[in-house]
């Protein structure tokens, strides 16, 4: 099973004075169970791209295949696709509209035509997956904190039992605690339920920590598509397109410049810490886990 984009091109307002190429000949294949980070500076086409993956936007040119089927073929069931490929929008809290949290999460499965008991069962399961217990069920979504609203929106998509979960900057504007909690929950869904994840993010640190593949967009084109480790080795090219590698990458490069033989493929603080401790340990003749 996979999502395959072939020469995906999207032009907003084609043929008008406002014509804008948002995607240009983008090609990739997303395999089942991957955790993909999607990064690029503002306006690079990330949101446009992910809205093609569930058929919400139609490519101006190019094709998109879901599990081998062309989603632009006549008669293709786009409604079914939208429940298999769940999309959590940028600032999803703007789309909460029901009177209470529980009704909001029920909306998607209810719309799928499922019986009431199953709708409610799914809503309960989805809310528990995002860490919201029964005390939230009858609260108005508008009374919740930013992080809680995001969780309700994510639960609303999870209740449709998607195979692929796409999140457009789910942590934007949240405090570090809210951010870590939401990313931790997404990671659990990936690890325990094998869900395919596409995470749009501005944070290289988050991508380094969670994603096993990183796609970088620039002006509507895919410019890198590799493991985060390999992409971050190109930190100078990333800088040239207004991005940067995780901060720890720069620390590692600075140490290497000083002649310290540390691996240049370290991308998280934990990895760098362990490597430094090992070196200190070697110097002291210890196992690297003790000493100061
Ligand atoms: N509805 C629209 N009509 C016209 N142009 C649009 C529309 N939506 C996006 N664009 C343009 O398409 C390009 C890509 O926009 P998009 O929103 O996909 O970028 P993005 O990478 O998601 O940016 P951000 O990081 O700010 O969310 C931009 O130049 C943007 O101005
Ligand atoms: Mg966007």
Judged by helices, strands and strand pairing, the structural class is alpha/beta
Compressed to H and E, one letter per element, the order equals EEEHEEHEHHHEHEHEEHHHH
Describe the largest sheet: 6 strands, mixed
Strand order of the largest sheet: 6-7-8-3-9-10
Query: What ions, cofactors and ligands are bound?
Result: adenosine-5'-triphosphate, magnesium ion
Compute the separation of the termini in Å.
49 Å
Number of distinct beta strands: 10
Quaternary structure of the protein? single chain
Mean pLDDT rating: 92
Q: Can you tell me the residue ranges where pLDDT is under 50 for at least 5 consecutive residues?
A: none
Number of helices: 11
Helix content: 25-40%
Query: How much of the residues is beta strand, in percent?
Result: 15-25%
Radius of gyration: 21 Å
Which geometry do the CA atoms define?
globular
